[in-house]
Specification:
The protein is built from three helices and 21 strands. The protein has 299 residues and is mainly beta. The protein folds into two domains: 62 residues, no CATH class; 225 residues, 2-Layer Sandwich (Zincin-like), CATH 3.30.2010.30. A hairpin with a 4-residue loop joins strand 13 and strand 14. The model has no long low-confidence stretch (mean pLDDT 91). It binds zinc ion.
Length: 299
């Protein structure tokens, strides 16, 4: 790589005001303000040192970028980035909760980033949300504090190194069931208006599957818990293997085991076990590009 005066990352519809903080920190020379240009057609965000003399970023050096921005909560039909998942409250009122979808390039809809699968980073997520709501993410909660008004701040532990497309969170009036068949808690979340007890059998299957995979493969997951949250609405989805927070499509979710024969139960279990297998094949070891993911989607 040659020295450069620009950094390129991806973004889609992030609103970056010209008055917000924009710093690029270069270890050797200290903080520098940079010019920012969004190029919607290529979904590029260019941070340029041009105009600050002949300063360049040395080849092989690291830079720290700080950007304040406003993102978009996308409608349910989009199904990518941060989006609305609809549900019906107990009184019949329509409502929605918030969840995410990163694969393949959904993460750039949430925050400016590099979302190529072969680039891994440690992520530290915090959510500031209404006190009445619950928030979950890839990792366990590190701290929960008051954030003023009727808000609270939930800070999560830092993730292991992982591709950005595996980052996830969900926000809503959530409750869960838990299986303790695995060394880490395995939970299934749904909104409080839904009968979450219906998911106990899949929570137990998921936990048994994790134990089997870990014992067979001899590779311990670098996670603290394993959550699943149902995602309802359009587009209909199967599942998504976000590391530590799997999302499960509505038609595979909250099923009364007594309503289905063994063949159908097996197909439901297969969906959960497919997503969990990705914790090793895809999340721990990741294909360099999307054209190769047939290697782990065949599981
Ligand atoms: Zn898959």
């Amino acid at each position: 790589m040659a020295p450069s005066s620009i950094c390129k990352i991806y973004t889609l519809k992030a609103s970056i005001s010209s008055t917000t903080e924009k710093l690029i920190l270069i270890p050797r020379t200290g903080p520098k303000e940079v010019a920012i240009e969004q190029i919607p057609a290529s979904q590029n965000l260019t941070l340029s040192l041009t105009g600050l003399g002949n300063e360049t970023i040395p080849a092989g050096s690291s830079v720290k970028i700080s950007i304040s921005y406003e993102g978009v909560i996308w409608p349910n039909e989009e199904g990518y980035g941060v989006f609305q998942a609809p549900y019906t409250k107990a009184d019949g009122t329509p409502a929605y909760y918030i969840t995410t979808q990163g694969e393949t390039s959904g993460m750039r809809r949430i925050f400016p980033c590099l979302d190529d699968p072969d680039l891994k980073a440690n992520f530290t997520v915090s959510l500031i949300i209404d006190e009445s709501l619950d928030g979950i993410s890839n990792m366990a909660v590190a701290a929960e504090t008051k954030a003023g008004g009727n808000k609270k701040k939930i800070s999560f532990n830092t993730t292991p190194p992982m591709s950005s497309y595996l980052l996830a969170f969900a926000i809503g009036p959530l409750h869960y069931v838990q299986s303790d068949h695995y060394r880490l808690p395995v939970r299934i979340y749904a909104t409080k208006d839904q009968d979450i007890k219906l998911s106990q059998w899949v929570a137990d299957i998921a936990a048994d599957g994790l134990k089997l995979y870990e014992n067979s493969l001899g590779v311990k997951l670098a996670l603290e818990k394993v959550d699943h949250v149902g995602v309802t609405g359009e587009p209909p989805m199967g599942g998504m293997e976000n590391w530590g927070l799997i999302t499960i499509g509505g038609s595979y979710f909250l099923l009364d085991i007594d309503d289905y024969d063994s063949d159908y139960r097996e197909s439901i279990a297969a969906l959960y076990l497919h997503e969990l297998a990705h914790f090793w094949f895809g999340d721990t070891v990741t294909c360099a590009w999307w054209t190769e993911i047939w290697l782990n989607e065949g599981l």
